[in-house]
Amino acid sequence: MLKVGIIGVGTVGTSVAEILRDNADVISARAGVDIVVKSGVVKNLNKDRGLDISITDNVDDILNDDEIDIVVELMGGVEEAFEVVKRALGAGKAVVTANKALLAYHRYELQDIAKDIAFEYEAAVAGGIPIITALRDGLSANHIESIMGIMNGTCNYMMTEMTNNGVSYDAILKESQELGYAEADPTFDVGGFDAAHKLLILASIAYGIDAKPEDILIEGIDNVRSEDIAFAKEFGYAIKLLGIAKKDGNEVELRVHAALISQDEMIAKIDGVMNGISVVGDKVGETLYYGAGAGGDATASAVVANIIDIARSGKSTPMLGFDKPMEGSQLVLKPTANIESKYYLRINVSDKTGVLARITKIFEEHNISVETMLQRKSTDTSANLLISTHIAKESDIQSMIDEIEGLEFVNARPVMIRIV
Amino acid sequence: MLKVGIIGVGTVGTSVAEILRDNADVISARAGVDIVVKSGVVKNLNKDRGLDISITDNVDDILNDDEIDIVVELMGGVEEAFEVVKRALGAGKAVVTANKALLAYHRYELQDIAKDIAFEYEAAVAGGIPIITALRDGLSANHIESIMGIMNGTCNYMMTEMTNNGVSYDAILKESQELGYAEADPTFDVGGFDAAHKLLILASIAYGIDAKPEDILIEGIDNVRSEDIAFAKEFGYAIKLLGIAKKDGNEVELRVHAALISQDEMIAKIDGVMNGISVVGDKVGETLYYGAGAGGDATASAVVANIIDIARSGKSTPMLGFDKPMEGSQLVLKPTANIESKYYLRINVSDKTGVLARITKIFEEHNISVETMLQRKSTDTSANLLISTHIAKESDIQSMIDEIEGLEFVNARPVMIRIV
Ligand SMILES: NC(=O)c1ccc[n+]([C@@H]2O[C@H](COP(=O)([O-])OP(=O)(O)OC[C@H]3O[C@@H](n4cnc5c(N)ncnc54)[C@H](OP(=O)(O)O)[C@@H]3O)[C@@H](O)[C@H]2O)c1
Ligand SMILES: NC(=O)c1ccc[n+]([C@@H]2O[C@H](COP(=O)([O-])OP(=O)(O)OC[C@H]3O[C@@H](n4cnc5c(N)ncnc54)[C@H](OP(=O)(O)O)[C@@H]3O)[C@@H](O)[C@H]2O)c1
């Protein structure tokens, strides 16, 4: 029999205990041993968890319990969780976590500390979708060319509703908060930070890249408005918040941002709160993984899968997929300024003669070539210029946007959305 | 260093050797050891394989070579491959195969023989998509409620072309043969047998069900005609060849057939030669896996992933996912006659009065309730009745079709396609 201690018996922790209880028949048949939860740790002892396990508010009760083989960390946060997990590993206990923030900052330290002890985190990326297993074990024969994913269900729900039901950004944000999909402070989701944490984890497995959130381009969906959705639809695109990792020579670009993507791509067909991640390998071509990216049960499904893996074989794969660095071909992070993309711009201008000519000239001066340009009336005295470009360089676009923002007939900083 | 012998250096075997050579940098970093192909076996020694490995035409050269750690079986066929693989396991060598026919017939014997020796087969289902890993390891916490998949790229290509480009069945079959997607004798693909082999493998992992092709319902796409495609489009369906496994109480139904499926389902959006498999777990909900189901490189990507797994950890998971049977809840195969579904029927009738009334009455007598009925002119003197039903029982539908076929005004055996 294998004994589990759960630190953090909240949404996911409660589901983990329930699955280990409700699905014990199939779990013990697959794992070869019975797996039981011995105890859990919470902050507030007064809340009823509806579970038949011993609950305390002291992590020592789990960390110092010699009977416990596996510690499941589901308390969230970064530094406190890091301390707890280090102590668990120090005590020789296997660890399973769903904590993407912890991993976004400390995954390489944790790999070094864990050494031969199993440390698993399937639930940290895209909840119930077994993307870590797929990428780390299933696609291990490939050089990964790119990863492109819908990794945040809240943003995807909002974009889908704006597209299909013509809802405004503000209205759908409010509704998402009421439905519990978005927090009171929605920045972590709509600002792209949650997706960035997940992208960094995948980038380590695919490329061995040790980057932190501060190192990469992170933007959200907070600039997207109905005009942009309408433009996208007209030109055969969907707008999605994407996490993108792309290999280019010995450089890897990592970025999270709203993006226009052709409606023909499988990723563009993923709607509502669902997540989906497309991975292109040099040998396998494109593969795609789809499912629920959040929710107690779906996330706990991945946590329990990791527990079963550990029951079956202890540690079977290097934590971040690499047993040693790639000889002579270690990859490095591409500087954000050098990223290339097509771009879409929305520029709100006063409706005067000469404006178009002036804007066009500035594009030329920055080496940015226009693919399509539409002018749409905004108010009686202003218009939106909706422009898509050919491939251009991030630094050129940014300096052009700065210049355009300063023009006397431009009413607000231009909104830019990348096209993939 | 780990040494591999490849038995069968054809389409997939050649790609395996190429990947181990071309991607050696990333493979050795991920596996922790170098992996090299020592030798290969073929039938025809005169064909140049373009590989720098020793090639023989005698399997003993690999099976009796003590230096070889892993035997990769890529010769195809059932009984001869079974003998070869048994000998390899008997010699203590790990085995990797892509041979779905072998597994459709002998997977449980192989599991018994392999015991603690690794026997892996990721490539046997859906080529490059890591569906075995996902189902066996990633979803192991779930009772699997259903599996529904596009597991044959040839059939999916044909259905897609008929739907999008209005091509006839005969024309697209001919084109598929010219493109090399379909064999001169296409029965194995269009008759559903290839998909059935894959479905049986997945059913073992999901449910522990030991069924053979002879035990389950297998039909193909060879009855599907442009009229059916037109009906499907009109009512919001796509037509796909699906492999379906579904749990119902302690019974599991297994079936392969063409099916009408709502265009809103993710599976319905998978077009062309691509494969996709949707798996519903009781905790994770729906997940879906998409990618190339065939082709040398994509298939070899999965073979090499298995080799890397073995290099990392020997055997880490029970071959068919279960370490022991499920206590008190072993599942059994549902008899085909008891399967329930909605159905679509195309009945070609002579255009006479009284026909509709007569047909309607026969439906009633067989307890089959009609959902929609269309009549479409076929020739000057005949018409097609296109009928969809509510949920009915397979045995009722079959006996009704037998009765209708015998009617004097019915010109051919009615064509039936299930609706999922
Ligand atoms: N929810 C999802 O859909 C989802 C999906 C993927 C990943 N995750 C990740 O899973 C983790 C858990 O998320 P969740 O949604 O389950 O969070 P949650 O519902 O807020 O649960 C957190 C649990 O940890 C306990 N806790 C927090 N700080 C503690 C401390 N210092 N000492 C002891 N217990 C403490 C809380 O106790 P009280 O109950 O007493 O407050 C609560 O039981 C997070 O890392 C999250 O990013 C969640
Ligand atoms: N091709 C795909 O896309 C694909 C996808 C998934 C799974 N698979 C499976 O992978 C396996 C291999 O398929 P494939 O397409 O690579 O087949 P293939 O191109 O026909 O290659 C078969 C190889 O085996 C050799 N061979 C056959 N019988 C032999 C014998 N008795 N002794 C020694 N060598 C023998 C052949 O030798 P010669 O070259 O001298 O004829 C050839 O090299 C099959 O089980 C297939 O179902 C294939």
Automatic annotation (TrEMBL), chains A, B:
Residues reported to bind L-homoserine: 183
Active site: 198
UniProt entry keywords in alphabetical sequence: Amino-acid biosynthesis, Methionine biosynthesis, NADP, Oxidoreductase, Threonine biosynthesis
The ACT domain, residue ranges: 344-420
Keyword Oxidoreductase among record annotations: yes
Residues that, per the record, bind NADPH: 100
Keyword rRNA processing: no
Binding residues annotated for NADP(+), in chain numbering: 7-14
Listed EC numbers: 1.1.1.3
GO molecular function terms attached to this record: homoserine dehydrogenase activity; NADP binding
One GO term (biological process): threonine biosynthetic process
Pathway given in the UniProt record: Amino-acid biosynthesis; L-threonine biosynthesis; L-threonine from L-aspartate: step 3/5; Amino-acid biosynthesis; L-methionine biosynthesis via de novo pathway; L-homoserine from L-aspartate: step 3/3
Pfam families referenced in this protein's UniProt entry, alphabetically: ACT, Homoserine_dh, NAD_binding_3
Family that this chain belongs to: Belongs to the homoserine dehydrogenase family.
Name under which the protein is recorded: Homoserine dehydrogenase
Organism name: Sulfurimonas aquatica
